[in-house]
Amino acid sequence: MSASCEVRGEPDPDLSGIGLTLSPADSHHALRVLRLGPGDECEIVVGAAVYAASVVEAVNSVKVDLLYRLEGVAAGAHYRAQVGVVQGLARPTAMDYVMEKGTEVGASFFVLVQASGSPKGSDPSRGDRLTRWLRIAQEAAKQSKQVELPRVQVAGSLREAAEKLEDWGASTDPAGTGRGVSGVGSLGDVGCSGGVGGAGGTGTLSLVLDPGAADGLFGTLAPLRSGCSRVGLWVGPEGGWTDAEMDLFSSMGMRRVRLGRSVLRTETAGPVGVAVARLALEDW
Fold first, then answer.
1. Domain check: are 138 and 45 in the same one?
2. Residue 240 and residue 275: Cα distance in Å, rounded?
3. What is the CATH number of the domain that holds 17?
4. 249: left (phi > 0), else alpha (psi -120 to 50), else beta?
5. Distance from C-alpha of 40 to C-alpha of 96, rounded to nearest angstrom
6. At 184, is the secondary structure helix, strand, or coil?
């Protein structure tokens, strides 16, 4: 029996022929969800690589032997650019969808921010909402064979969200995933060679999704595909961004773009935007 699966082990510098014991959470996934047993084969993400593995023990914990490193399409979803979503908080079920589908299409990060139109009581610090969204992202990454988990953070204001993107641009690992991207970007920088709406350079290109914008997301990014390293898509809650919020975005040098001719729900816009951006950047 062969099972198509993905569970995550701990990174090791020498993986040839080694054995791994999966974490309790991954063991539970392998045993209860995938129903693996001794002799079954699966795929395991170790560090930034995907390996074919054979299950050697499956009782309370799962032990595997790594067989060989997968290459090409089989090696999982690796991306050249960071593409993420700054999401105005919406109702919890909508946020579940954003986290799941956004991860499946390759979102590198999520910044969750309280907007003027966010529903009362949507603060992710309440209860276990943030923990839940992190778990949803992890499960979606397994299902969709994303080699790297998206970074998930909360911002208390729109300015703080923008500052987080700027701080990540100043680091060598803006998404906290182990993939280095050099360069420092200010709020006006675009993160793309020959950039738009700013001075150019290697900062984060922040694009506000607006169904009434004149320019499209695909057409904006496609000419910049050779130089873009980080793109942040700003998605408003139900009802969209207020005029005051739009004015703030303009003051920070952000550009408005539309996804297409239709008007999407807040939970649909982010995942669709990530997919369109990756297609435009030829990084799908």
1. no
2. 20
3. 2.40.240.20
4. alpha
5. 32
6. coil
In this structure, are 109 and 151 located in the same domain? yes
For residue 172, what pLDDT band results from cuts at 50, 70 and 90?
very low
Backbone angles phi, psi at 137, to 5 degrees: -65, -40
Interatomic CA distance for residues 53 and 58, integer angstroms: 13
For 97-135, the pLDDT digits (tens) are 999 999 999 999 999 999 999 998 777 766 688 899 999
Residues spanned by the domain of 27: 2-75
Query: Using an 8 Å Cβ cutoff, are 199 and 225 in contact?
Result: no
- CA atoms of 157 and 112, how far apart (whole Å): 9
**Residue whose tokens read 């650019």:** 81
Number of structural domains in the chain: 2
3-state secondary structure of 91: coil
| Amino acid at site 248 | L
Query: pTM, whole model, 2 decimals?
Result: 0.79
Give residue-wise pLDDT tens across range 184-226.
Answer: 223 333 445 433 333 334 478 999 999 999 999 999 999 988 7
Q: Which long-range contacts (CB under 8 A, 24 or more apart) does 223-227 make?
A: 223/194, 224/190, 224/192, 224/193, 224/194, 224/195, 224/196, 224/281, 225/280, 225/281, 225/282, 225/283, 226/193, 227/192, 227/193, 227/194, 227/195
80 vs 206: CA distance, rounded Å: 18
Q: Are residues 189 and 254 in the same domain?
A: yes
List helix spans (H) across 19-63.
Answer: 24-28
